[in-house]
Write a structure and sequence with these properties.
binds guanine, binds zinc ion, TIM Barrel, Urease, subunit C, domain 1, seven-stranded mixed beta sheet, 17 helices, single chain, alpha/beta, 2 domains, 38% helix
Amino acid sequence: MHQNLNASLHGIRGSFLDFIADPFYQVEQDCVRYLPDGLLILEDGYIKALGAYQELAAQYDKIPITAYPNRLILPGFVDTHIHYPQTEMIAAYGEQLLEWLNQYTFPTEAKFKDPSYARRIADCFLDELLKNGTTTALVFAAVFPESVDAFFEAADRRNLRMIAGKVMMDRNAPDYITDTAESSYEETKELIRKWHHKGRLLYAVTPRFAITSTEKQLKLAGQLLQEFPDVYLHTHLSENTKEVAFVAELFPQNQGYLDVYDQAGLVGERSVFAHGVQLTDAEFRRLSEAKAAIACCPTSNLFLGSGLFKFHQAKSPEHPVKVGLGTDIGAGTSFSLLQTANEAYKVAQLQGQSLSAFKSLYLATLGGAEALCLEDKIGNFEVGKEADLIVLDLQATPLMQLRNPHLPAQSLGQLAEAAFALTMMGDDRAIQATYIMGRLAYDRDGHRPV
Ligand code: GUN
Ligand code: ZN
């Protein structure tokens, strides 16, 4: 018995960084936990202990330990908004949101009626996530239920904590890619029953956006949230000025874009709205009051020319809104949350603000987990949480090595500087390894480390 228990234990040694509070609201040093030489103990995929190597090692001297000298270990990244069917149409030239959807997105998503095609892309997509250190994501599938099955089957095989849903869209799009209010309700219901809480999977009711849903469809989406109170709501909101104007035309009786969702019962604690670039002050306040979250997608907002997200307003102390980072592939230009943090920094700079590395790494980990109401399961190294973690190489390229010559950082000041360079220069090359529930799921160099 004792032997068996010990057999399930495993240790990882390296430098550890995670967050225990939100650095937008408290002194950064109080939010950061940093162990230059730490030991993380894993048991059956869960975190059993974290401490300084010198303090814990004697207690765990009989268990296997994987050492990562000069590497920084973080909780897995959380991508709060991404479209798996758009993987292959990343970097489509020349259009802004509404034209981009018609010209590139709808024809691409039409291919996901074919389950074998959907399965192939779901695998490519998940490979890409793990390679970029993303261990949890909130994912748009396509309108076809088969596309949801393909995604969840692939995620379940890899034991990933993923949230996804079938797109609901019953107007303003070609027939080959629309459903009806009733069919979307029935199909979503069946998919919730099939997938929600299967293994680590969770379901999000996913109307595409107000433009492609009738009021009836949005109301039925709201009904699903009533019937299944712990599923998520995932949609787009106030991304682009032409989009906002079109929503006002389509819903003249409403008080604005967010109100369209509110009247349908779609604004609550488990609601995640992508973008929010064009939100009004009143809408920010309403999101704060409802404890809803925004997925901020800077690479996408710059790529489609949508605009600059107002971090300072979303994270205001008076009306705080939960915010996570989203890549928004395929309007986003990188699967990497490091590259997403890079663009977020520039977006803040253009508004006279600076986003520290600790703030953006918080958004990419615990902040994302909080946006998805998963902070009791993932997001940092608290004992009892699921052991999804990533090993970062801050010297992944010769230039990064030149920029970050002295590792590990010996103080929080040194760490802040090294971590900032990582968020500016890092991408998939900086992800040495990704662990899912304590097991190595991706290794950059293609071997199990010693
Ligand atoms: N709004 C509605 N659909 C989409 C989409 O697929 N991508 C983005 N960026 N915005 C949207
Ligand atoms: Zn999107």
